[in-house]
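Lab notebook: predicted structure, single chain.

Context: the supervisor wants predicted structures on file for every construct in the current expression panel, including those that have not yet been purified. This is the next one on the list. No modifications to the sequence; it matches the entry in the shared construct table.
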Amino acid sequence: MKTKFLAALLLVSSAYGAKAQQVQLNGMISDFKDTNITFHYKKNKLPVTDTVAVKGGKFTWTADMPEPQKVFIMFPQRYFEFYAESGKLSMSGKAEEIWAAKVSGSKLQDEADAYRQSLKSITDQEEELYQQYGKGTETAQSALEKKLSELRSQKLTKGNAYIKAHPKSHYSLALVADRAMMGSYAGVNEAYVLLDPSMRESMEGKVLAERIEVLKRSDIGVPMLNFSQQDTEGKLVHFADFKGKYVLVDFWASWCGPCRAENPNVLKAYNRYKDKNFTVVGVSLDDKAEAWKKAIKDDQMPWTQVSDLKGFQNEVSTYYGINGIPSTLLVDPQGNIVAKDLRGASLNDKLAELLDK
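Prediction complete. Output recorded below exactly as produced.
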């Protein structure tokens, strides 16, 4: 899924403005070519980027770190995340396996590693199922997605239990923050209220509270925003014009690979239910009109398409706090949101439930 990945993750990282304490990370990455890497974190609520040189596989990064927070390192081929806190930390790994690098010296990182290990039986099952994704029949795909949904539910349940047992932990706070990036209001708020007041009243906790208020706008049962944007011909389209129908509001973009892969599934749903009081409204996060229009033609999407051509600053997606696409909102004939982020077999199953009567 294409995302505003670092920007969204950093939004929920912490920097509390207390008396500065310094973190020092000494790294050794074997077989790593001399280059620069960048560290992304928060300072005084603002995103900061530090550039660090790697020579002979070695590097040292120092920064003020008054409170623990998640830090992201951008290597040439991929990113790496870890939990930093004041003191001396070390990182070791191999160039071809950056994802498996180890960070020591941070109790918060140790806590994160232990928690992830506790989920291994679930994540192993997920990995096996993802290997089969999109390779079977529609019935098989639906069954696979249900299994994945059950595993995600198990992870959320374990997460809530951990947060409840460790309400004063910065890692518990980070678990909620991560969930808030792409989650639903109900699920995020359920975890947030389990946190100790000291965590909820921290700077990160306050940022999370603001994020939760944004997520609340797309909660089930909430009226859809009556937005207006231009279609491909420059004509202003008002969402209120679709009241009386089930409407799938589909956030996508021409440059988004997963979106383009999902478009045939949306087209199939549209053709199946367009005569049963259902339609689709595409909201593109493109910023180039030509690419947007070409993708619509290439993917043969006959439904209404709108965009303000502001990319991820699209006014509708921003209002709903959408950090990754494809993303959808299903709206009922009364104009209320009844489902969120349906795709693949889950979209077909939900429409069948509502419209195959």
